[in-house]
Design goal:
mainly alpha; Growth Hormone, Chain: A; globular; about 425 residues; about 75% helix
Length: about 425
């Protein structure tokens, strides 16, 4: 860690983390893209569209709860006890296989209400293994590089989710054009989930060639491992609480923007609902978000201080919320796409700081468990974001557009409060990754 370079070993450790994020974006956004179809085949026709969508999007909450359980169990007993690399090997196998199995599930017309029950069970399994991905990958990659490179490298790792997002949009667009609208309800969503095995195999091969973190090796050699790493989180209450607030707000924003855009565009412009062009539009928005996370990481590299970078990006986001909202609901498709793209860009720039920030605020003895627990714990309330939009609309006091704006404001307030309470990590003589 004293060397100011990134060697071949570090590159594999970075790619190992990056590949897991690609897998996560591929699977998670794939589920969101076909949400409308899943709602129609996993629930009875007597249910309203909104009710079915709420129940399908609650599947995200099921996965979020499972991610928290997975991060605690796998992080506590694998990541901080047996090693970051071993944890990532086990997690990617379970993640890819359980995602693959979704394609085999029976639908409501075949097994009645057993269909959504089986869907939720498999989503829980997906989340259980996915919960280890962020904590294990982010820890391994951040422990692999010198402090001065941690922000741009963290941005690259974080962008893996967007890369997976971008790829799955293209895959679904290809499947729609290949099989046609007639097969969309019956075949496209199944084939899409079958393809999730491909990024899983690629990630597994990379991880088999990856070495263990030097920080963990030294910790093991010096007998610094904690008996119960999960308990270590309680030793850092302020860091845990501020990070939880920050991530709850940021992940809520992510849920009601990038995760909601595929559905929201079809709601705003009904002619796009079943048109393959909607996937192209979302791919373009996501590509812009990728530039946001990359540029955000590079700019933060020069700012260097983690909390300051987060605060600057968050303030820019908050200032732009209402102008971008007005553009989004203008009725002009170009302005809507421009609004969504700007929001995605700034939001991604905030995310660029997260791996470096989280890895430096938590002690190495419980870093994997703490990062996973805080990140995935925050994802639980955030996962209700899309369902909350429809629930607020159902109240009759607000329309869908206004409900979206309300969730954007709530997410921003929670996020900025977390940043305000956070401590700065960069700037001291001792690299906090060693603590």
């Amino acid at each position: 860690m004293s060397e100011s370079k990134i060697d071949r070993k570090a590159i594999f450790q970075i790619l190992s983390a990056f590949s897991g994020w690609v897998m996560d974006g591929y699977v998670s956004i794939g589920y969101v893209i076909v949400a409308t179809i899943l709602a129609s085949v996993f629930f009875p026709a007597s249910f309203s569209k909104n009710d079915s969508l709420i129940l399908i999007f609650l599947g995200l909450a099921v996965g979020a709860v499972a991610r928290l359980v997975g991060s605690i169990i796998l992080g506590n007993y694998l990541g901080d006890r047996l090693g970051r690399r071993k944890m990532l090997l086990y997690s990617i196998v379970g993640f890819s296989l359980s995602s693959f199995l979704i394609g085999f599930l029976p639908v409501f017309s075949q097994v009645s209400y057993l269909a959504p029950v089986l869907l939720y069970i498999i989503l829980f399994a997906v989340g259980l293994f996915a919960g280890a991905e962020y904590s294990g990958g982010a820890t391994l990659s951040m422990e692999a590089v010198p402090q001065k490179y941690r922000l741009p490298v963290g941005a690259l790792v974080q962008s893996g989710y967007g890369v997976g997002f971008f790829i799955i949009l293209l895959v679904v667009a290809f499947l729609k054009s290949t099989f046609g609208v007639a097969e969309y309800d019956n075949l496209v969503w199944r084939v899409m989930f079958f393809t999730t095995i491909i990024p899983g195999i690629i990630a597994l091969l990379i991880r088999m060639m990856t070495k263990e973190s030097e920080v963990f090796i030294e910790m093991e050699k010096n007998n610094e491992k904690e008996e119960i790493p999960a308990a270590g989180i309680l030793k850092q209450p302020l860091s845990s609480f501020s990070a939880f607030l920050l991530l709850t707000g940021l992940l809520l924003l992510n849920t009601v923007t990038l995760s909601f855009y595929p559905t929201f565009l079809g709601d705003i412009y009904a002619s796009l609902a079943n048109n393959p062009i909607i996937d192209t539009y979302n791919a373009e928005i996501n590509l812009i978000s990728l530039f946001g996370v990359w540029i955000g990481g590079v700019v933060a590299y020069f700012i260097f201080r983690r909390k300051l970078s987060l605060a600057i990006y968050a303030i820019i986001f908050i200032v732009l919320i209402y102008p971008m909202y007005l553009l989004a609901i203008s009725g002009n498709l170009f302005y809507t796409l421009l609004s969504f793209s700007v929001i995605a860009f700034i939001e991604a720039a905030i995310f660029a700081n997260i791996p470096a920030f989280l890895s430096e605020i938590f002690s190495k003895a419980h870093r994997t468990t703490a990062m996973g627990t805080v990140y995935n714990g925050a994802a639980i309330p955030a996962s209700f974001g899309i369902a909350a939009i429809y629930l607020v609309e159902s109240s009759g006091y607000f329309n869908l557009n206004e409900s979206w704006l309300i969730l954007l404001i709530i997410g921003s307030i929670i996020m900025i409060l977390g940043i305000f309470l956070a401590v700065e990590t960069a700037g001291g003589n001792l690299d906090p990754i060693e603590k």
